[in-house]
Each structure stands twice: as C-alpha cells, then as structure tokens.
C-alpha cells in the first residue's frame, strides 16, 4: 500500500523536487521547505517564480520577483547565480555540466559551466527556456514561436515560427523534437531535422505540465480530464497517431504529470488534489493520494522511483512512498 | 470553475498622459479606505510610494491563434496577475494602470479569455480619466483617447477648474455622444469619492446595469441629475445641451429599444451580430425582456466576447422593455435597428 507523509505548508507550491534525495518544496512566497530529518525552511526569494532541479539533482535552481537566480544546496546554502535588479527572473532551466538558463523580460541568459554569462535579446518576452539534452543549445519560447541559441559558439540563432503565444518549452530526450505549450490550449512541435510542424490540439485547458517517459518514448501532458500521452517512438513523432488518455476523471482535470524514471508508469495529479499512478501498457490505475484541498501543481519521483514529492496550489504538500 | 466569492476584483485605469491617473492612483494607495491594492503600472517612476505590491509590466499584446483578429489579450498581464494570485492574502483588489496610448480591449479581454486569470480575478470596471481642457485636442489626434472613453464604465472628467462652464458642458456632451452608458464624474485633481471608482461591478451581470437605473435614459428630458456626481466646485445648472456636438470622434453609440423579444430570434441574432460586427463593436450592454420570462436578461460584451444571464425578476411597476447599446466604429445603425426590432415577439 502506498503511504502519504503530508507536509502542510501555507502557500502555492511552484515546484516539488528531490535534491540530493531530500524532498524540497519551493513556494511562491519565496520560501523553500525540505524534509531532512524534520521540516527545514530557507527564505530564498521575496517572491519565487520558478524552480527546477539541476541535471545532477543536487541543486535546486530558482528565480524570483527579486531579480535573483539562485542555486540551492540540500543543506540550505544558496549561491547567487545572477542578479537582474527589478526584472523578474520568470523562467529557469538546467543544462549539461552545470549550465543554467534563465529569462528576464525579453532576454534569455545562459550561465555556462565556466561561470561566464551570455545573453540573448528577443523582440518579445521570453516565456520559457529549455536546454537540449546534448551540446550547449537552448530554446526560448516566445510569441509566434521559439528561438534556438548556441551559447558556446557564435552560431546564428535558429528561428522556429508558429503563430500564437508559446508559454512553455521542452526538448525530447533524444534531441530530435522541440515541443512548446501554447496560450490557446495546445501543444506545438517541430522536428528539428527539417522543421516539420506537429500540431497537438484539443485540450480543454492550458497545458502547464509536461513529462517525457523513459527513453523519450512518450510525452505526457496536463490540460484535460485525463493525462494526454503522445507517442514519440518513431521519427515522425506523434503525427497521425492518437494520444493515449490515461487516468480519465469525470469531475476534474489532470494538472500535473510525472513519468517514473525507468518504468512506463505515469503519476498524475488532479485539480482536486488526488494523485494516481497509471501504467502505460494496460492503463491500470493505482490511487496514491486521496483528494486534498487544492490542485496538484508539481510532482517529482526520486532517483529510485520509489517516492513521489508533490506540491499543491494551497500548500498541502507531501511525499508518497509507493513501496509502502 | 470561477468562484465569485474568491475572485479578486480588478479595476483598469485608462487615460492620456497628464489626465490625472497617477494622482488618482496615489490617492487610492494612501487614503484610508480599509482595502489593500496590488497595482500593475507601466513605469515605477511616476508613483512616489514605496510599496512592494506595485509591479511594473510592459504592454505586450498577444493575438489568439484562433483566426479572430479582435481576440487579443495582454500577455504581460496574464503573467503578472498569475504571479500575484499565487500569493493571495496580501491584497484585496488589483488596479491596472495602462499607458496613455494603450488599447483597452486586450486589457479587458484578458480577464475573459484567459481561463486561469478568469478563475482567480474578475474585471470590476474600466475607469477612464479625461482632461477636460485637452480632450477636444486629443480626440483630433488620436484614436486611443476615443477608445478609452468608449470602453469606460466610469469617466472622470478631470481638471474641470481649467475650463469654462460652457466648455465643460460641451466636453461632457462629447463624452456622452461617444459613450452614453458610462457614469461621468466631474473632478479636480482626481478628487472623487473612491466608491464611485472602485468596486463598481460593471462587468458583474447580477449587478451591472442595476447600478444604473437610468441606463440609456439620457434621451429622456428629466433624467440628467444622475449623469454625473456634483463635486464641491460644481455650482452649475443642469440645462445640458441635448444635441450631440460635432466632435472628431469616429466611435458612435447606437441605442436600441424594443418590447419583449422572441428568444428564438433574439439569441441567434445577437450571436450572428457579434460574430459579424465583433471587430467593430467596442462594448455592448443591454437589458432584455424575453417573452414569457419573468426575469430580466442582461448582456454585456467586448468585441466578440459576450456574456448574458438572467439577473432578477422584473419589479412591479417596472416597464418591461428591451434596451441595448452598441458602442463601436463603422456600425450600420439602420441594419442593427431593423434586425433588432425584427426579433421582437
């Protein structure tokens, strides 16, 4: 039986993540909480906007309304990566070998592994940033498309155009596809080898959570009464193939998704706070957490795939142990 | 679903540079009215108050990728409002200050078209500040000044001390001719009872129009007292000019009146009209008497976005009458009037 260890916090959880195997919960008020032999708290920002684990999963990278980008260790110590004054650090992403990308207004910044920072200006606001899995390459999601930059070289940026506002971005783990989430309840994808478009539409709500399955075979998404899971097994991606709908609910929406690190099992968080695990192969569902006080906003599996840290809109967070 | 109990009200302040927006903002932020405001401004510089709930936001218009050219939202407001609403409890309401040149439509539409923003907030009213002395000039050289008046639920006719009574009457008649349904308040140095500006519920269908029992009554001879609130320096008579003065405006309002409507005709007509004329319609508001329906039906809209609902029962002695006003550009008045009247039961 799965067991839930609740952690009741006061505020909107932006990101739940395991850092050095310790569950961390970054709240919008700027506090970062962790469960490390008791509940410990760090006041990281005056208003936190984004947080993500680094590639080595031993740092939590955060950005805030105070214009700071920080790198937090599991012992609560923080390193300031950048200060942007009154500009908000509205998006942050982790890259290979300790590289960090973040966005302030219309500029995407990349802090290279050697600590040097490169900045790329855009005509419109950078809504989200993501690193490609290999090589130093970032994508900046923006109005009417996404721009690829190569911060380590002087290569020219690559513009990927598609009308509308793009508010989230992710590379496939094999680096062959770029997928954005849009303002108008859709995903858009590009096959990077030839720029071919992939339209993934039909969501009743904005897609706020995306998760790639093991080996990049699937892309799970929120924004519907079920988790919408697109097949990416072939070189054509999901084109011409219907997505799977896993964990369908009649009375609420999937608000957060997180694939198990090695198995084709998807954790789905819902608008009412419920969390389920669903196996892709047979759509078998296991209840992990009963409905709580508010929508699940973020989930993360630990390295072994035994525990899930989850955060919610009003702060009823916790850790699910599926091995029981 | 949006829960009206927890939705935070949003007031939008529009107005040209120098119309008195910053003065009004400073008053709202400093006066003791028991409410805390988060304020979204274009530039920190103008407000001389240190308050961590003042957020700067650069106007950024997003066209929705749905083939509708008037479906625009403000991307910057979506981001800022979402971030503010993730830390509730710090404020009771939000004020959005727009630049003098801002188009109010995307601002208003943000609060209807973005589901997340809509779930957490509700547009309370669009308040336009107008400089009594310079409005005639502004109307000559900009479309924005006109749009701001056309969009407003409340117009503060400010700096009345800088004009003569005749000029004031003329400017007020101009505002009326652009927007007959807005409340007009004459002010100096933006000194207005804040209750006239805040918590108006102008987009709240259960309250809208009920606030204004004389909705569309401007053409009635006896009803001028309600048109504006008298300020302390407002010692004037009320023989307002009835004729709309010639102004340089391209916006016009079309007020339609009729009896009981046949719902099988009226609703398809309203949908078709807003689909077809959406880009030309800046605002529409109406109270509709539906045949055999004991309740008033109220509608309001911005471009193609329309909302309607039953509001309350018609009161005893209240005349069952359908009233609808369109404010917009290039509207075909004859066609609207003819097709509206054809929807009568």
What does this structure look like?
The complex is a heterodimer of chains A (324) and B (345). Chain A has 324 residues and is mainly β. Chain A has no helices and 30 strands. Chain A has strands spanning 3-8, 13-19, 22-27, 31-35, 39-43, 48-53, 59-64, 68-73, 78-83, 89-94, 100-104, 107-111, 117-121, 128-131, 138-149, 158-171, 177-182, 187-191, 196-200, 210-212, 218-221, 227-231, 244-246, 254-259, 265-270, 275-279, 285-289, 296-301, 307-312, 316-321. Chain A has a six-stranded antiparallel beta sheet with strand order 14-15-16-17-18-19, with no helix packed on it. Chain A is globular and about 55 Å long. Chain B is an alpha/beta fold and 345 residues long. Chain B is 26% helix and 26% strand. Chain B has nine helices and 15 strands. In chain B, strand 13 (295-302) and strand 14 form a beta hairpin. The longest helix of chain B is centred in the last third of the chain and has 15 residues, at 263-277. Residues 218-246 of chain B have low confidence and may be disordered. Chain A binds chain B through residues 11-12, 14, 28-29, 46-47, 49, 65, 86, 88, 90, 105, 124-125, 127, 143, 163-165, 182-184, 205-206, and chain B through 44, 52, 56, 58, 60, 62-66, 73, 75-76, 78-79, 83, 86-87, 114-116.
Provide keyphrases for this structure.
heterodimer; A: 324 residues; mainly beta; Methylamine Dehydrogenase, Chain H; four-stranded antiparallel beta sheet; B: 345 residues; alpha/beta; eight-stranded parallel beta sheet; five-stranded antiparallel beta sheet; globular
């Amino acid at each position: 039986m799965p067991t839930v260890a609740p952690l009741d916090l006061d505020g909107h959880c932006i990101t739940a993540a395991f850092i050095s195997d310790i569950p961390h919960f970054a709240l919008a008020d700027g506090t970062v909480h962790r469960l490390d032999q008791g509940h410990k708290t760090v006041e990281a920002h005056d208003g936190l906007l984004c947080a993500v684990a680094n590639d080595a999963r031993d740092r939590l990278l955060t950005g805030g309304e105070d214009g700071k980008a920080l790198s937090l260790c599991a012992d609560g110590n923080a390193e300031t990566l950048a200060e942007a004054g009154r500009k908000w650090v509205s998006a942050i992403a982790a890259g290979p070998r300790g590289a960090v990308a973040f966005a302030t207004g219309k500029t995407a910044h990349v802090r290279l592994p050697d600590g040097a920072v490169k900045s790329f200006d855009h005509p419109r606001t950078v809504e989200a940033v993501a690193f490609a899995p290999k090589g130093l390459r970032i994508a900046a999601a923006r109005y009417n498309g996404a721009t690829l930059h190569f911060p380590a070289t002087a290569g020219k940026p690559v513009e990927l155009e598609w009308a509308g506002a793009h508010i989230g971005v992710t590379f496939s783990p094999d680096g062959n596809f770029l997928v954005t989430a849009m303002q108008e309840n859709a995903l858009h994808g590009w096959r990077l080898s030839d720029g071919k478009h992939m339209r993934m539409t039909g969501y009743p709500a904005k897609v706020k959570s995306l998760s790639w399955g093991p080996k990049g075979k699937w892309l799970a998404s929120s924004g519907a009464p079920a988790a919408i899971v697109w097949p990416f097994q072939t070189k054509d991606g999901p084109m011409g193939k219907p997505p799977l709908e896993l964990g369908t609910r009649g009375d609420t929406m999937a608000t957060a998704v997180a694939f198990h690190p090695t198995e084709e099992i998807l954790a789905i968080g819902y608008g009412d706070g419920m969390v389920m695990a669903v196996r892709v192969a047979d759509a078998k569902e296991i209840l992990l957490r009963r409905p709580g006080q508010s929508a699940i906003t973020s989930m993360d599996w630990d390295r072994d795939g035994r525990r899930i840290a989850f955060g919610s809109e009003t702060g009823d967070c916790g850790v699910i142990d599926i091995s029981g | 679903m949006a829960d009206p109990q927890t939705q935070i009200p949003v007031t939008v302040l529009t107005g040209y540079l120098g119309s008195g927006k910053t003065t009004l903002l400073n008053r709202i932020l400093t006066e003791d009215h028991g409410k805390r405001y988060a304020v979204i401004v274009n530039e920190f510089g103008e407000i001389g108050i240190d308050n961590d709930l003042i957020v700067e936001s650069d106007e950024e218009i997003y066209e929705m990728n749905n083939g509708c050219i008037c479906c625009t939202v403000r991307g910057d407001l979506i981001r800022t409002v979402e971030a503010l609403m993730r830390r509730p409890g710090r404020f009771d309401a939000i004020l959005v200050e727009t630049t003098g040149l801002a188009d109010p439509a995307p601002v208003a539409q943000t609060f209807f078209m973005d589901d997340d923003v809509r779930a957490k907030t509700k547009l309370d009213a669009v308040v336009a500040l107008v400089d009594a002395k310079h409005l005639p000039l502004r109307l000559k050289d900009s479309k924005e000044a006109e749009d701001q008046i056309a969009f407003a639920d409340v117009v503060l006719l400010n700096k009345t001390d800088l004009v003569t009574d005749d000029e004031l009457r003329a400017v007020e008649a101009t505002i009326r001719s652009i927007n007959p349904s807005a409340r007009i308040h004459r002010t100096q140095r933006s000194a207005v009872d804040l209750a006239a500006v805040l918590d108006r519920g102008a987009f709240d269908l259960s309250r809208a129009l009920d606030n204004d029992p004389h909705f569309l009554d401007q053409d009635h001879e006896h009803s001028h007292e309600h048109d504006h609130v008298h300020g302390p320096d407002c010692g004037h008579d009320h023989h307002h000019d009835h004729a709309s003065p010639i102004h340089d405006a391209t916006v016009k309002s079309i007020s339609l009146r009729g009896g009981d409507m046949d719902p099988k005709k009226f609703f398809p007509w309203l949908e078709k009209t807003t689909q077809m004329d959406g880009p030309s319609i800046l605002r529409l508001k109406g109270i509709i008497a539906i045949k055999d329906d004991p309740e008033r039906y109220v509608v309001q809209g911005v471009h193609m976005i329309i909302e309607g609902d039953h509001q309350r029962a018609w009161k005893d002695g209240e005349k069952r009458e359908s009233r609808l006003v369109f404010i917009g550009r290039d509207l075909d008045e004859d066609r609207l009037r003819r097709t509206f009247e054809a929807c009568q039961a």
